[in-house]
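Reopening this ticket.

The earlier resolution said the output was attached, but the attachment link was broken on my side. Pasting everything inline this time so it's all in one place.
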Amino acid sequence: MSSTALVPRKDTAIAYLLWIGGLMGFCGLHRLYMGRYGSGILWFLTGGLCFVGQIIDLVMMQRMIDDSAEGRGW
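Inline output:
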């Protein structure tokens, strides 16, 4: 038996909808959804790192979803 717990896969559509919320001023919700609590709070407080982080996250979204499914979040 493996020592790693199975983590339910996050819904890609929900992650992208939460990312869109960042365009309306609610940055970081997609990161909180994926279990990246530290960076999610940082994104929320800094406006998605002045929206530069939001754009980078759009490109990296699928990787973040895959990482959260494997239990690798920050």
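Reporter confirms the inline version is readable. The chain has one domain: 12-68. The CA atoms of residues 15 and 33 lie 7 Å apart.
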